[in-house]
C-alpha cells in the first residue's frame, strides 16, 4: 500500500498544498478554517492515529510523528483523536507539536465504562458510520439500535453491513434477516456483504468513496476482513507500512485512518465490547422514528406510553402496528440516556462547586494579603 508510505507523499514546505491532502478529505472548508494557523506558519495535517501522547499525521511535508501535549486537555471530549485536522509545527522543529485542531464537523462519541461515564470520542469528521454485524451469530437487534443511536447523534450517515453473508446460502433466509434489521434501522441502508466471495463489496466501495467512514462493531464481526476487502490488502500489513518507527507495534487498541484505493477514507476501530449512550436523545429518537411519530398523536404531551389514556403508542401496540420489542428497546435506551445525563449533570455541579470553592479561597487569600499590606 504505497499510498500510506512516507516516501510516496510529495514533500512540500507549504501548509496549503492541497493536492497532497485532498485524498484525505482536505477541501475548501478546511482550508478556510486553517487560514489563521497558516498565518502563524503552522502546517495542516490529518490525524491517522493517536498513541500514548503522540500521533501520526499526514501533512504536505509527508508523514509526521508529533507530540500531542497541547491538545490533550482534562476534558476527554476535547482530546485530539483519529480523523481530526491538526495544526502542526513546521518542518525543522524537533520535536514537532500539534498546536491545535480544527473544529469538528462530526464526532462519534460513546460513554466510557467508568463510573464517571464521560464521553469518549472514537472518530472525528466522519461522513459514514459503518456498523458491521456478523451473520455467523444470532442477530442482536437491540445492540444494532444502540449503535445506530450513537451514529445518528454523531452527525454521520449510518450504514449497517451484514458481514459473512456467505454463511447464509439460502436467499430467502437472508432476505428475512435483512428485513429484520431494516425494521430496526428505519432510514438506514442495510447491505449484506461477503468479503469471502465479494458479494456486496462493490456497493460498499461506492458508498464509502464519497468521504470519511468509520468502521464499528463487536470483536468477531468481521471488521478486519471487511477493511481488507476495501483496502485491497491485509490490514496488518498496511499498519506495518504506516508504522513510522519501524517496530511493527501491535495496534489493535488504536483507531487508524487509511486512504482507500477507490476513493474515500476509512477509520478502523478495535472491537467494541460496550457501546454506552452519551447525550444521544436525538439519536434515539431517530432510530425509533415510528414511535416518535405515533407519540405526536398521544392525548398528553408528556405521555410516558405506559398506562396513560389516549396513548397512540399503546394503541399501535395493541393493533399490532408496533412490536413490543421495539417499544421495550426504545424505553431502555431512553432510560439509559436519562440516567447518564443526570449523572453528568451531577458531576458538573460537583466540579463547579470545586471551582467556586477554589476561587473563593484565592479571593480570601488576596484579601488577607491586601489587609496585611495596609496594616
List the topology elements.
Blueprint: H1 18-21, H2 28-39, E1 43-51, E2 54-59, E3 62-67, E4 85-88, E5 98-101, E6 107-111, E7 119-124, E8 128-134, H3 141-154, E9 157-163, H4 171-184, E10 189-192, H5 201-208, E11 212-216, H6 223-231, H7 235-242, E12 256-259, E13 265-268, H8 281-287, H9 289-295, H10 312-319, H11 324-374
Helix pairs in contact: 3-8, 8-9
Can you describe what's shown?
- It is built from eleven helices and 13 strands.
- A hairpin with a 2-residue loop joins β2 (about 55-60) and β3.
- α3 (about 140-155) crosses α8 (about 280-285) and α8 packs across α9.
- It is an alpha/beta fold.
- The strands form three sheets. A six-stranded mixed β-sheet has the order 10-9-8-11-13-12, sandwiched between helices. A five-stranded antiparallel β-sheet has the order 3-2-1-4-5. It has a two-stranded antiparallel ribbon with strand order 6-7.
- The radius of gyration is 24 Å and the shape is globular.
- Residues about 1-15 and about 245-250 have low confidence and may be disordered.
- Helix segment tally: 11
Strand proportion? 15-25%
| Alpha-beta content class | alpha/beta
Low-confidence stretches are 1-17, 243-252
CA distance, first residue to last residue: 75 Å
Series of H and E elements: HHEEEEEEEEHEHEHEHHEEHHHH
Produce a short descriptive summary.
This protein is of the alpha/beta class and 375 residues long.
Amino acid at each position: 500500500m504505497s499510498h500510506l508510505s512516507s516516501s510516496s507523499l510529495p514533500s512540500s514546505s507549504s501548509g496549503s498544498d492541497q493536492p497532497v491532502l485532498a485524498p484525505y478529505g482536505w477541501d475548501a472548508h478546511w482550508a478556510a478554517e486553517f487560514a489563521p494557523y497558516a498565518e502563524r506558519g503552522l502546517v495542516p495535517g490529518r490525524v491517522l492515529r493517536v498513541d500514548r501522547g503522540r500521533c501520526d499525521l499526514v501533512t504536505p511535508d509527508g508523514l509526521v510523528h508529533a507530540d500531542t501535549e497541547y491538545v490533550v486537555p482534562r476534558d476527554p471530549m476535547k482530546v485530539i483523536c483519529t480523523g481530526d485536522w491538526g495544526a502542526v509545527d513546521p518542518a525543522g522543529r524537533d520535536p514537532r507539536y500539534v498546536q491545535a485542531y480544527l473544529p469538528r464537523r462530526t464526532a462519534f462519541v460513546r460513554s466510557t465504562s467508568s463510573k464517571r461515564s464521560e464521553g469518549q470520542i472514537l472518530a472525528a469528521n466522519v461522513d459514514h458510520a459503518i456498523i458491521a454485524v456478523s451473520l455467523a451469530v444470532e442477530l442482536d437487534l437491540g445492540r444494532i439500535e444502540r449503535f445506530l443511536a450513537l451514529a445518528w447523534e454523531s452527525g454521520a450517515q449510518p450504514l449497517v453491513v451484514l458481514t459473512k453473508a456467505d454463511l447464509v446460502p439460502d436467499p430467502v433466509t437472508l432476505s428475512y434477516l435483512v428485513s429484520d434489521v431494516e425494521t430496526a434501522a428505519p432510514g438506514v441502508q442495510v447491505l449484506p456483504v461477503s468479503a469471502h466471495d465479494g458479494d456486496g463489496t462493490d456497493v460498499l466501495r461506492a458508498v464509502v468513496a464519497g468521504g470519511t467512514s468509520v468502521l464499528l462493531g463487536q470483536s468477531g464481526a468481521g471488521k478486519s476482513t471487511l477493511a481488507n476487502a476495501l483496502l485491497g490488502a491485509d490490514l496488518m500489513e498496511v499498519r506495518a507500512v504506516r508504522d513510522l518507527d519501524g517496530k511493527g507495534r501491535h495496534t489493535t487498541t488504536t483507531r487508524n485512518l487509511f486512504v482507500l484505493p477507490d476513493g474515500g477514507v476509512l477509520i478502523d476501530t478495535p472491537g467494541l465490547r460496550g457501546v454506552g449512550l452519551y447525550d444521544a436523545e436525538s439519536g434515539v429518537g431517530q432510530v425509533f422514528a415510528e414511535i416518535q411519530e405515533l407519540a405526536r398523536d398521544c392525548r398528553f404531551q408528556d405521555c410516558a406510553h405506559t398506562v396513560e389514556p389516549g396513548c397512540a403508542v399503546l394503541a399501535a401496540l395493541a393493533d399490532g402496528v408496533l412490536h413490543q420489542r421495539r417499544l421495550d428497546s426504545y424505553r431502555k435506551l431512553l432510560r439509559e440516556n436519562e440516567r447518564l445525563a443526570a449523572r453528568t449533570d451531577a458531576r458538573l455541579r460537583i466540579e463547579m462547586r470545586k471551582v467556586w470553592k477554589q476561587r473563593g479561597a484565592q479571593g480570601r487569600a488576596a484579601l488577607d494579603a491586601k489587609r496585611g499590606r495596609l496594616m
